[in-house]
Amino acid sequence: MDLLIPDKVHDESRQGEALVLNPIGKNNGRKLYIESYGCAMNFSDSEIVASILAEKGFETTQDFNNADVVFINTCSIRENAEQRVRNRLKEFAGAKFKNPGMVVGVLGCMAERLKSKFLEEEKLVDVVVGPDAYRDLPNLIDQVDDGQRAVNVLLSREETYADISPVRLNSNGINAFVSIMRGCDNMCSFCVVPFTRGRERSRDAYSIVAECTDLFNRGYREVTLLGQNVDSYKWSNDTEQVNFANLLEMVALVNPELRVRFSTSHPKDITDEVLHTIARYDNICNYIHLPIQSGNSRVLELMNRTYDREWYMNRIDAIRNIIPGCAISTDIITGFCTETEEEHQETLSMMDYVHYDFAYMFMYSERPGTLAAKRYADDIPDEVKRRRLKEVVAKQQAHSYIRLQQHIGKTEKVLIEGFSKKSDNDYCGRSDKNAMVVFPVDERFKPGQYVNVLVERSTTATLLGRII
Ligand code: SAH
Ligand code: SF4
Ligand code: F3S
């Protein structure tokens, strides 16, 4: 069981979403269907894939039944993420039966983890492509057209797709994800990402600024800079070195009307310099996603997170001092190998210390090949993991509610993203602190504009108010 409170970066409602774009000129008469699972990185990669294939004349479709090429961009982070993909592939089988010429491809982290094993295990799959091999897709599709099955799961130390300007899929024209780095070198013992995404590499800072500038010129008003550990961003050319604080500043300077968000921050690497940069620019949002995973130092050590409870608290104190009122969210894993009841209590007490605005909370799921799978027994029974998760979730719900209540009576600067899901009489948008705000439409303002909203009340997850 995963329990998620949706936001833009880990949006549960987007899992499995079919992505479409308008044709960009050429047309080869073939239709591409692509759906994505997992983190924002994967959604962002799907935009790169669509760009590469649009260049070759593919059109996108939202219906896999009349697609010539069906891609599923997959996630391996927990066992249930992989199960979801397997189930989905079964649903594609019927369409492929009717249209044997259909090319079915598995992309992303599961492709990288299972490699050619996928072709043995799932007979309907024609092509398996890892996250660093998307430039090879046109070629791989040609191979399948010639009657072969094709695999490219080479990981790269350099690939950042920096020169590919991603087409924006299912975009509202206001928020966009911008990948600033790929891979991860951290080797947290529970985590499959270093194996599926390869070594960490940072993208050319100027290509990031150019992409953000172009987005702004096309009307976008919010970018989310993406990386598994944005604080270790590091790029240099002959004359300068750019760290994450420098990059944040460069993007903030694109235009004061462009909001800047970022994810994910790592407690071991987030520096005071980054915090001061956030504090200095109004358009860098006061919101930090800082995964704790466990509140106990022994468990953190087994997890190979390379910080302990005290260090994490020190980083929280620094955020509170340097950016007063900053919203903070986190990720928590319950029932990691050997976690005792007292250690679980320390996660709960850490939650009391921070009062997170929201959290993504998971039961530990052993992943083959990871350090934890090799070294430690997955020895906490499922019902204990689940009960601990319930306790964590209950506490978080209480804290989220308190945090929302704190906004009541205050004025929030909201970027209008569109009409609310429930009614065309209401707009919705996010505050600087990433809270969802719903308020009656005022004809003078359009999506993409900022408004000041007086918050009057809240539901369990949304603030309600009116423009002032
Ligand atoms: N790079 C980010 C996390 C990416 S994965 C970071 O370092 O924080 C997103 C979240 O999934 C992780 O923070 C962790 O809480 C959860 N996760 C990762 N592997 C997991 C596993 N094997 N079982 C349960 N949850 C896991
Ligand atoms: Fe996984 Fe740790 Fe890297 Fe995050 S920092 S992606 S949890 S290895
Ligand atoms: Fe999943 Fe891969 Fe992202 S494992 S969380 S899609 S990096």
From TrEMBL:
Subcellular location: Cytoplasm
Annotated positions binding [4Fe-4S] cluster 2: C184, C188, C191
PANTHER family the UniProt entry points to: CDK5 REGULATORY SUBUNIT-ASSOCIATED PROTEIN 1, MITOCHONDRIAL TRNA METHYLTHIOTRANSFERASE CDK5RAP1
Protein name (Swiss-Prot/TrEMBL): tRNA-2-methylthio-N(6)-dimethylallyladenosine synthase
Pfam family, one: Radical_SAM
Residue span, Radical SAM core domain: 170-403
Keyword Metal-binding attached: yes
Record's GO cellular component terms: cytosol
Function of the protein: Catalyzes the methylthiolation of N6-(dimethylallyl)adenosine (i(6)A), leading to the formation of 2-methylthio-N6-(dimethylallyl)adenosine (ms(2)i(6)A) at position 37 in tRNAs that read codons beginning with uridine.
Chemical reaction(s) catalysed: N(6)-dimethylallyladenosine(37) in tRNA + (sulfur carrier)-SH + AH2 + 2 S-adenosyl-L-methionine = 2-methylsulfanyl-N(6)-dimethylallyladenosine(37) in tRNA + (sulfur carrier)-H + 5'-deoxyadenosine + L-methionine + A + S-adenosyl-L-homocysteine + 2 H(+)
Chain residues that bind [4Fe-4S] cluster 1: C39, C75, C109
SUPFAM superfamilies for the chain: Radical SAM enzymes (SSF102114)
EC number, UniProt record: 2.8.4.3
Residues in TRAM domain copies: 405-468
Residue ranges crossing the lipid bilayer per the database entry: none
Keywords: 4Fe-4S, Cytoplasm, Iron, Iron-sulfur, Metal-binding, S-adenosyl-L-methionine, Transferase, tRNA processing
Single Gene Ontology MF annotation: tRNA-2-methylthio-N(6)-dimethylallyladenosine(37) synthase activity
Cofactor detail note: Binds 2 [4Fe-4S] clusters. One cluster is coordinated with 3 cysteines and an exchangeable S-adenosyl-L-methionine.
Alphabetical list of InterPro entries matching this protein: Elp3/MiaA/NifB-like_rSAM, Methylthiotransferase, Methylthiotransferase_CS, Methylthiotransferase_N, Methylthiotransferase_N_sf, MiaB_methiolase, rSAM, rSAM_horseshoe
Protein family per UniProt: Belongs to the methylthiotransferase family. MiaB subfamily.
Essential cofactor(s): [4Fe-4S] cluster
Quaternary organization: Monomer.
HAMAP family, sorted: tRNA_metthiotr_MiaB (MF_01864)
UniProt domain MTTase N-terminal: residue ranges: 30-146
